Amino acid sequence: MAGAVRILVTNDDGVHAPGILALRQAVDHLGEVFVIAPDTNRSAIARGITIHDPLVVDEVSMADGFTAFAISGTPVDCVRLGALGLIGDPPDVVVSGANLGLNLGDDVTYSGTVAAALEGVMLGIPAIAVSQDALGGGSGPGLDYDFSAATAFAAKLVPLACEARFPRHVIFNVNGPGVPPGELAGAKVTRLGRRVYDDSLVLEGTEGSARHFRIYGEPMSHDMQPGTDLSAIDDNFLSVTPLHFDLTDLEGMDHMARWRLDELLQSVAGVS
Ligand code: MN
Asked: Which end of the chain is less enclosed by CB atoms within 10 A, N or C?
């Protein structure tokens, strides 16, 4: 990599969220830093993209005066804009976060924070996603967060991610437990765990023929599987999970080899 490393910082909580300020300040010293982030909170939008409307790009000041691009679109739109010329050449690395709340286990598929990092990988750009539990646990705005350890740790991962030669492109999904840096138990490489969702359908009211339901909001529990991101966070470890975009289940392919799909197809009407 010739010259200074070019770092694109994005998130899904919006350009004015405290986590992206903390992450940008943590990577500032590493090279040339650009911020392209949604203009509002786009959490849980996963890999959504904007296809019907033009993308509005505005320049805004972050709380410390740094000029950032605020985008009317999604986290993935932000990475696309960065890769397609909004900041000149594509970035060398994408860092996404720090999210207000953890992105662990099955939740990574909902996460805009993780989706932005995956978009980097899709485009051949190394990427790191960073998420932080609130102090004492929890997610979302209005809680107390200490981003210092997770963001500084992510900054240390940037050169490793840029130099890493994995067989497949991976992102590094970093999660910080809800404790002050002095109480961290350590850092662990983990695999994704399994959430147990305790959601229920709650009828909140009616308006004519329309019923208003709420599904989400119950605290989630999880399987206590050792080696997972969920159990690492439970034990106050920083968790790093390498994720790739290939969702293919190789064991499933082996199992399906016995299914004789050719015979199935020949039994379909109109196929000879
Ligand atoms: Mn978020």
From this structure: C
